[in-house]
Here is the input.
Amino acid sequence: MAGDKLQLGNLDNMLGVELRIAQILADRLFASSPQLHMAPGHYTVLSLIELNPGINQSRLAQSMFLDRSSMVPILDQLEKKGWIERKRPLTDRRSYALHLTRVGRAALKLADQEVQGLEERIATEMGHNNRASLLTLIKQFQTALLKIQSSDRNQETANDNKH
Amino acid sequence: MAGDKLQLGNLDNMLGVELRIAQILADRLFASSPQLHMAPGHYTVLSLIELNPGINQSRLAQSMFLDRSSMVPILDQLEKKGWIERKRPLTDRRSYALHLTRVGRAALKLADQEVQGLEERIATEMGHNNRASLLTLIKQFQTALLKIQSSDRNQETANDNKH
DNA sequence: CTCAAACTGTTTGATATCCAACATAATTGG
DNA sequence: CCAATTATGTTGGATATCAAACAGTTTGAG
Here is the structure.
């Protein structure tokens, strides 16, 4: 029957699994917000360019933990929409200095309001204190993952040196 | 300079943004775990099939919040590796009943140990209490998102009925 | 100064995912 | 019982992402 409950075993006690589901649901809510005709990643990119005008593509990618090649199609789209500009700086002709256009700034301003509204609804639904705790713990989780990863990397290189 | 700190504005106070980063880092750690030659999603699929032998593809997809068409290539790979079987039930010849093979069960058992080890390292790094709180809050967050989404959907259909 | 190394953006090829459309099979309303 | 609807798995087209390879540019060691 459709009503049969699935056995989940230990899965719903695993951070990775629950985190992934949360991510999917959050993206889905973002995507279905009618005023936000913009992907979550695009919103982050616009914000980062506004906050750091002239930033280049590699730094932008790095700050979002994306590969720099993944940034190319994102910026292509934003450029096609007329929201950003790529300018060649005279001092380093390999890179592009990224800037918002006037239209881009306006789009971001609207999106900011929508996102703020979503965050507010979530905070109301789950409790403002809980929301704040969650944010703090997610950051501790990030820090833990980075530490483990870097200690793994050191272990590897130590083994490499052994021969 | 490379050392210049990026301005983040309000971004690092947004659940969506921080959640995405946590997800990327968690996937990266999982992927770089040498014993785990298996994607995070594949691990979840194997576990769910073991816990719910005979489950069909749509239910499996639904339980992971994926589209049922996304399950097809995942199961193709697991089948090619000889870890799962698709059996046509006599009672419903549209669907497949999914089962682990003996080899699949062995692979899952190894992965279970590896995943358990990772969770343990994370718990040690961030504190066992913090890990438990994080898990609880992520689930509250999921519940909040589902509530908001369903109330949005009701709002839409109410508007549809108005005309 | 010079040339090897590193950096920047891009392209290509691979995988993951969604959505819409489809074929087959099962269910249901009349 | 039959026609319409629903359910299941699949395919095809779109976007997102990574990794590796590349070309142009800059930097740095000797």
Notes: The first helix of chain B runs from residue 15 to 31. Residues 39, 41, 66-67, 69-70, 73-74, 92-95 of chain B lie near DNA strand C (CB under 10 Å from a C1'). Chain B touches chain A through 67 residues (CB under 8 Å).
